[in-house]
Amino acid sequence: MSTDNQMGQPKKPIAAEQQILSLGKILQTLRDEDDVQVLITTTIGYLKKQFDYQFIWLGLYDSVSKKIHGQGGITPDGETSYLKRSVLLNPGNLICQVVTELCPVGVANLRGEVRAPEWQEVAAKYNIQGTIILPIRYKDNCLGVVLLGSQRWGYLLTGDARAKLLIVIGELGVVLDQNQKQRHSQENSNNSTTESLLELLENLRSLTLLDKKLAAAVEAIDQFVSPSRTNIYWFEREGNYFWSRMSSQLVKIGREWNDQRSSVGITAHELSDVYYALAVNQLVWLTESGSSLKSHIQDKLLQRLGVRSLLAAPIIWQKDLLGFISVETSEPRIWSQADKSFVQGAAGLLSLVIPTENLENTIGQIQQNHQLTNKFSQAIHKKQDLQQILHPCAVELLERLAATRFLLLEYDQGRDIYQVIYQGVLHNRRFFKFTPTPLSEMDFNLLQNAKDAIEIATLEHDLRLFSWHPQLLDNGVRSLLICNCIQGDKPEVLLVITHESSHSWTTLQKELCWVVSQCLGVIVRNHQLNAISEEQQKIAQLFKEYPNTLIKSESENTESIALKQIADVLECPLSIVLTWNLGEERAKVIRGVINNHHFGIVADVPIFVERDILIELALAHSSYVIFKAYDVPPETKKWLTIPENGQVLVMALRTTDDSQPTGVVLLADYEGAYWSELNLNATVTLISQLAWWQSQNKITQRLTDKTEVLRDLNWYKHRRLEEIHRMSASVLTQIRDLGIPSNELKQMRYKLLLRQLNYITNSMTGVIKQEQWQLHLSWETMSVASLLKRTIERVDNFAKQQQLWIGVHGLTQPTEEAESPKSTSLSGELITAAGSFPLATAGDIVKIELVIYELLLSACTRSPIGDRVDIWCQRLDETLLEVSITDNGTIDPQLLALLNENTWKDVLTSTHLNQPPGLHFLICQNLIKQLGGQLQIYQVPDNRVVSRLILPLAPHNFEGNTLGNTLGNTFGNTSPFSQ
User: Fold this and answer.
1) What number of H helices and E strands is found in the chain?
2) How far apart are CA 965 and CA 778, in angstroms?
3) In sequence order, what DSSP letters do the residues of 921-933 get, joined into one string?
4) DSSP structure string for 251-277
5) 20 to 30 Å CA-CA from 625: which of 245, 316, 466, 586?
């Protein structure tokens, strides 16, 4: 004996055993299956796997129409159109022979078989030759036909293969015959069910009392189904449970319909999924081995009822579950379709006859509901507060719904909670405190998508609104209705109707609750809009008064008055400003409002600007920041007093996000205070206006101070200039009085100096008379060469100290640029091309000269020692010329950016433009702009600094009427320029 056999391991089955196992498996499958289509699919799959046939067709025989209807099979290419075809039995055909004689028929070549004309097309297409046609039969009853076709000539099954095929087809016949008989039996049973239900209907119509109708239904069910017990359970909404109203074992429970509750009952929670299935009008059956539901509650429920099989059918009226018929057996039982149909039909008949019992009552309820709905609709237009509007309607609604409490909730976005804006209760009941937390995502979506009232009949057994359960249960709530008061919108306004015990509401009551909730949504929205309108009017009035406060108030009290108005917007008890000047370490407190002893500022405690975290966080944000009391830093609590349930709002005083802050506004209140988005936005605007007022006030003060200084400086310089003019004129008179020296050389020098002194004196005359308090622009012309010569002489000493080389290029321009080379200056000498004319400018020459001097002096100042400065001159067009000074010095990029901006330049706030050299450059830009030119200072890619000056071009015939000619001979020819 081998080791494997000793260990008890099975041997692998040989091929014959595998075939036997496969045959046994298919036979068992066919016996266990009831669905005809599954039987056919399973059989075809087995034939395809076990036998080498390329074409298989299976059809079922209809003895009435004498046709075989195709059910399926296989083809070589997967085409299915041939498999669903129907074949009519014609005498002499092979199919007819098989059906008639109930014997298999074999064909060597189907393509050439004249007795099978309906298969010639298929045989030709797929080359089908050897074919077997077998009947599906049971005894003498033909149920169908199987056709197996091979692409090999004469291929027929023999021996074991043939036996297996006949066994499988035989078993299929047996199962199909049983299925057919069962279907016929059900049809007969349906006829019996219909007759029994008609008889029950006739009995119900003849009875007047409801309990007698229920007893008749129980009796009919007992006769038809023969169970161990039949009960009719009735639903009690107060308590949310079912009690046995009628039973086949007890004639009655011993009380009328409106008597006290029976002790025989079962809660909706105990029924679990059975209750929810019955509520949606589903038939439910339970056995120990399974149920019609997906859940596995049958064992617990059957044990609770003391039975082993259960069949339950709901009794429903107007979508409300009134009760259910329970058919129970003490032994395991498989419920037939006839049993299910009859019980369900009996429950349906009861659903039809019950409404007549309470028809008048129902009509009365509908009328009362309509009247109550009208009251809520009329309340929409009332302008009273919610308490006055809702109290009478809420009490009536509670009575109509048989509930105990009416809660209207509104979502507070600022605090992220729901708050009760109205609570109504029945008489002799107390109000309870309820602060529901935000809804979970699942509850939020449930309410947002709800189109009717949501019922929670037993709170402790329901997972909906789970986060609210602790508060509700603590306050005695056991069931509730909840509605989103604005359908399809976010659940921001909710109506909650509660009950102190497990309770279920009718569809009519839930519809009433839903309609009322939509009215309440409109009422709450109107009150919200009215409140917003009042806030807007208050803020609008404040915005009218606030600018006058800032303008007309004395500067010492302006911040305090403004803080009081800001505090009025949020209605907070504390408002202050922490302010400081640039460079100061400590902040000063300006008090606005402190009208509550729980809020205050501790005196004599220093507030350090750079060390206080509250101030630091306020400066780090562009808008306001709100802190809870427990978040306020300990350093701040040394000087700020607020209660533990307080909150603080801080915002920096700044005009723009990148401007220097001048202080921090601090507002404080209790944590429960409501700061709406509208009020917060208004507060931000008022604080920003206060910051602008401070900024403008400082600018105004700075301008006032600077104007006073400039007036003093201008007065002093002008008087000094008058004195210099007087002294120069006096010296000139004395020189003239002395006479001309006798020496010829001295005479020439004397005359030259005299002319220079005379020009200086005359030039000061215009300044003294015309430019005492404002600039006067004159109109003169001068050659650019003379202008640059004078300017270079003024910086000559400084250039020599810095060892700088100043080069001038392009002083003259050719009349025909295409024919004559441009003038250039190399090593300080001017080379004039033939046919060229000198460049000249027109305007206030003295001021132009001062601008060029300022630009050239700045270029020399920033240039490295031993470097060079180049001056480039060129004519741009018929009216303009360009003078550019280039150097290799270093200049602040921010200064260049400010100078080249095309926007208004704020010299009061910019540190680059309110002091030299930026201030001088800005003055030069303004002067040149007044003279009709432009000044640009920028850097080129090779890092050279370019001062580009665009000036008006003087006409060609400017000689004889120029300042340049007047002064042309006053300078020696020591410079590199040639005239």
Assistant:
1) 27, 36
2) 17
3) HHHHHHHHHHTT-
4) S--SS-TTSSPPS-EEEHHHHTHHHHH
5) 586
pLDDT tens digits for range 399-419: 888 888 999 999 887 778 898
Confidence at 446, pLDDT banded by 50, 70, 90: very high
φ, ψ for residue 434, nearest 5 deg:
-140, 115
Q: Tell me the chain's radius of gyration from C-alpha atoms.
A: 55
- Please check whether residue 377 is in contact with residue 520, taking contact to mean a CB–CB distance below 8 angstroms: no
Q: Are 901 and 922 in contact (CB under 8 A)?
A: no
- Asked whether the beta carbons of 465 and 491 are under 8 A apart, the reply is no
CA neighbours within 13 Å on the CB side: how many for 892?
11
For residue 531, give every residue at least 6 positions away whose Cβ sits within 8 Å of its Cβ, in sequence order, or none: none
Taken in order 587, 592, 598, 602, is the CA torsion positive or negative? positive
Sign of the torsion angle spanned by Cα atoms 770, 776, 778, 783: positive
Q: How far is CA 715 from CA 711, 765, 846, 927, in A?
A: 6, 16, 21, 21
Summarised one tens digit per residue, pLDDT across range 516-557 is 889 888 888 888 888 788 778 887 887 777 777 777 655 567
What SS3 class is residue 567? helix
Instruction: List Cβ<8 Å contacts ≥24 apart for 682-685.
Output: 682/539, 682/542, 682/543, 682/569, 683/566, 683/569, 683/570, 683/624, 683/649, 683/651, 684/623, 684/624, 684/651, 685/543
H helices present in 333-465, as ranges: 337-353, 359-379, 386-401, 441-448
| Cis? peptide before 917, omega within 30° of 0 | yes
DSSP state of 335: P
> Collapsing DSSP states into helix, strand and coil, what is residue 333?
coil
Sign of CA dihedral 712, 714, 718, 721: positive
Q: What is the pLDDT of residue 253?
A: 40
Record the tokens describing residue 3, joined without a space.
Answer: 């080791």
- What's the CA gap between 26 and 22, in Å, rounded? 6
Among 651, 629, 653, 626, CA closest to 640: 629
Per-residue model confidence as pLDDT tens digits over 557-569:
778 888 888 888 8
Rounded distance between C-alpha atoms, residue 641 and residue 401, angstroms: 51
H or E segment and range at residue 670: strand 663-670
Q: What is the DSSP string of 588-623?
A: EEEEEEE--TTSEE-TT---BTTT-HHHHHHHH-SS
- How many residues can be counted in the chain? 979
pTM comes to 0.52
Neighbours of 787 (CB within 10 A): 23
Task: Compute CA distances 720 → 441, 713, 727, whole Å.
Answer: 84, 11, 10
